[in-house]
Structures are given as structure tokens and as C-alpha cells.
Amino acid sequence: MLLCADIGGSFIDFALVHPDGRLEQRHAVPTPVDDAESFITALETLCAPYPALPLHIAIAGVENPQTGHVHAANIPGILTVPLREKLSLRTQRVVRIGNDADCFALAEARFGAARGHRNVFGLILGTGIGGGLVLDGQIVPGLGGVTGELGHAPVVIAPPFLTDPDEVAATVPLFRCGCGQSGCLDTIAGARSLERLHLWAGGTPETSHAILRLWEEGDRQATRTLSVWMTYTSAALAHVLNVTGSTVVPVAGGLSNSDLLVQTLDRAVRDRILSPTSQPLLRRAILGKDAGILGAACLGPELCYDPC
């Protein structure tokens, strides 16, 4: 068995995980976000009743493989701490740390909607847009620990002949991104960004849920908004699939609750990739809140993923 924790900005979700994915003794405690010592002590306390069992962590952040530091925007207290090393010393056990989106993709590949597939791209359509990449059954460590982040890198770019800022603003949805760039997919594709995109396209202030409902009902303005959303999101995802060879895309996050959105995005992506297929590639994820813990369990050889 393993000890696994899914750590967000509000709570640490903690459980014992069996090799078949069964969870035991699951409970949650508040996440100490501002102080590294309190953060480490909280995990040490959770682990104390279980001597020697490895601790696997899914966290809303990225571990830099060169420094061991974890950059988690909603847990600033651990920013300059070699977290895995500190936790291993304090708890006297093996510690492994994975990004929560990567763990989501790994969990869906091992236990969920992508079970049996070696190459999997997990897509999160939530407040923002994110992703996790599993190749040949394993998470691929990227530069600085970053992999699968299709939300950041400019995909909305103004043609060079448009030099007037007002003309650019009226022609393409070119918005500033929180990462410092402009035109990232995250600026239009997440739930909050969809609301901004709707205003840009000529709509009135609406929640993302209302926009999707209006679109499903055939509303003309919502259809205009979603046509822009679908164009950029499907293009970015088609690039990902062409490069990675992923054969299935489990989709999670609030926007994925719309079956029609997932189905329409799936068709748009399949129209754009190099290897046409009549079989759906996008599937709604099925593990829900268990994905972080189950994906963390698959980070090491104790519960490694082998689709064969």
C-alpha cells in the first residue's frame, strides 16, 4: 500500500491506496499555505501512523527537477524549499511529487476513461485550461518540470498587417495572460476566459454555465462565441495529438460537464489531426475527485502503470 496526498490551496486530501486503486482511511486537513514548516509538519503528522510506507503527492504546482523546489501559486510558503528532500528526512520514507494535472492523466490512464492506452493526454477545462501527458505509460519530465501545459504559449496571434491596436482588438481575441504573454489559449478557453471571450464577441455579461446553456439551445450570440472558442481550442489540441501520438483524451473540469461541448470539440479535433479516425478521441473523465490521489499512487514502481 501507499500513502497518497492530493494537495490544493485549501485542503490536503489524504488516503491509503491499495494496488487495485481502493482507498482507505481517507480524510482531509487544511493546507498550511504560508509557512513551509507548518506544511511539512501537517504531512508528517498524517504519515506518522504508517511507518515506512512511501508518500506520493499530487500538487497544484510544478517540482523543478534541478532544484527540487515546488512552484505552487496557491501555496507560496513552499516556494524556496526542496520539498521532497525535506519531507523524506522528516518522515523517514520515500517521497514522490507530481503535478496534479499529470496525476490526473496518469490516473485516468491506469484506472479511468483512458485505461488500456499507452499515450494519453489529459485535458482539464476548468477555471483555466491545463493538461497532463502520459507517454508509454509514464509521465514525461519536461524542462523545469513542465509538461502538458497547452494553456500557455501564444496561439492567438494578430496578423502582422494589423498595426492599429483598435483594429487588432476588434479582429482577434488577443488578451494578456497571467503568465506574462498575450494570446495564450488560457486567455479564452477556461471558464472565466470564456466569459471574457463572450463579451469580446458581442455578448452580454454571462456566466460560463449560462453561455454553454444558451449555446446548447441554439442562441445566435453564444454560437458565435463558441465558434471562436472551438476554432482555437481544437487547433491547439490537434497540435498536441499530432506531436504526442496520444490515442485518447480524458476531459475533466467544469466545462466538461457539457456533453455537447466535449462531443463537438472531439469532432473538431478529429477534423484537424493527421490520422483521421471515426472513433471518438475525447472522453469525459470518470474518476472525479479521486484522480489526484490515484494518479499520485502511480508515480513510482510500487503501483506503476502498465496497460499491457
Structure description:
- Keywords: ATP-binding, Carbohydrate metabolism, Kinase, Metal-binding, Nucleotide-binding, Transferase, Zinc.
- It holds the Pfam family ROK.
- This is N-acetylglucosamine kinase.
- With 308 residues, the protein is of the alpha/beta class.
- The chain has 2 domains: 2-103 and 290-303, ATPase, nucleotide binding domain (Nucleotidyltransferase, domain 5, 2-Layer Sandwich), CATH 3.30.420.40; 118-286, ATPase, nucleotide binding domain (Nucleotidyltransferase, domain 5, 2-Layer Sandwich), CATH 3.30.420.
- Helices cover 35% and strands 19% of the residues.
- It is built from 10 helices and 12 strands.
- The strands form 3 sheets. Strands 3-2-1-4-7 form a 5-stranded mixed beta sheet, sandwiched between helices. A 5-stranded mixed beta sheet has the order 10-9-8-11-12, sandwiched between helices.
Proportion of beta-strand residues? 15-25%
Shape: globular
> Could you tell me the mean pLDDT?
92
Q: Count of helices?
A: 10
Q: Which stretches are low in confidence, meaning pLDDT under 50 for 5 or more residues running?
A: none
- Biggest sheet: strand arrangement: 3-2-1-4-7
How would you describe this structure in keywords?
transferase; 308 residues; Nucleotidyltransferase, domain 5; single chain; metal ion binding
